[in-house]
Amino acid sequence: MKSIAISGSPRENVGKRDAKELRYQGLVPAVLYGGPTQTHFAVSAADLRAVVYTPVVHFIDLEVAGVKSQAIIKDIQFHPLTEQIIHVDFLLLDEKKPITIEIPVKLTGTSPGVKVGGKLVQKLRKLRIKALPKDHLDAIEVSIESLEVGKSVKVSDIKLDNLIITNAIEDTIVSVTTSRALRQAEQEAASGKK
């Protein structure tokens, strides 16, 4: 799993007025929890862009007042109109405790069903994975090499070592459906045989 380093500065005051002032300065109020105490701090909004506006999941090497820790982003609050990040919750990682993270799904190969005119439909772009931090992956690869028209890959078809998928096992990840063009071609072929 990739890591990104972010440094923060401790917050003396925790309140609405202080948070508003921080945002005005281009900073985002944040909290790190999961340890013995919560740590309130502020991070640069620019530093968060590389972590927030990407489909890739990152561990964060966080440094606040000289104290280094590894964390993940657990929750982000956005302004309803401007989409500006207004608050971030970080969760401290413990190598002995499993964590649940949404990991992107990466499709690999070429589907024979698509080659004959079927339509590829990806229903899940991320899977919820529970594992120890050291076992987490950057992406879950799903092969579509054997997907014919009308076939699908479900969560139950994915087997991963040391990882537990917490999505419902009957959920469809990707399928190949009959496209309008393929349906029309099949109807024309059927009417030509008569």
Fold blueprint:
Elements: E1 2-10, H1 16-24, E2 27-33, E3 39-44, H2 45-52, E4 58-64, E5 67-78, E6 85-92, E7 99-108, H3 112-115, E8 119-122, E9 126-131, E10 140-143, E11 152-154, E12 164-165, E13 172-177, H4 180-193
Parallel strand pairs: 1-4, 2-6, 7-10
Antiparallel strand pairs: 1-3, 2-3, 4-5, 5-6, 7-9, 8-13, 9-12, 11-13
Task: Outline the structure in words.
Helices cover 18% and strands 43% of the residues. It is of the alpha+beta class and 194 residues long. Strand 5 and strand 6 form a beta hairpin. It is elongated, with a radius of gyration of 23 Å. The protein starts with a strand and ends with a helix. Residues 99-179 form the Large ribosomal subunit protein bL25 beta domain. It comes from Mucilaginibacter pocheonensis.
Order of helices and strands: EHEEHEEEEHEEEEEEH
How much strand?
35-45%
Mean pLDDT: 89
Helix percent band = 10-25%
Query: Radius of gyration in whole Å, from Cα?
Result: 23 Å
* Largest sheet entry: 6 strands, mixed, barrel
Using the alpha-carbon principal axes, give the shape. Answer: elongated
Strand-pairing-aware structural class: alpha+beta
- N- to C-terminal distance: 58 Å
Q: Which segments are poorly predicted (pLDDT under 50) over 5 or more consecutive residues?
A: none
Strand elements, count: 13
The number of distinct helices, counting runs of at least 4 residues, comes to 4
| Strand arrangement, major sheet | 1-3-2-6-5-4
Q: Quick gist of this model?
A:
Part of the 50S ribosomal subunit; part of the 5S rRNA/L5/L18/L25 subcomplex. Contacts the 5S rRNA. Binds to the 5S rRNA independently of L5 and L18. The protein has helices at 16-24, 45-52, 112-115, 180-193; strands spanning 2-10, 27-33, 39-44, 58-64, 67-78, 85-92, 99-108, 119-122, 126-131, 140-143, 152-154, 164-165, 172-177.
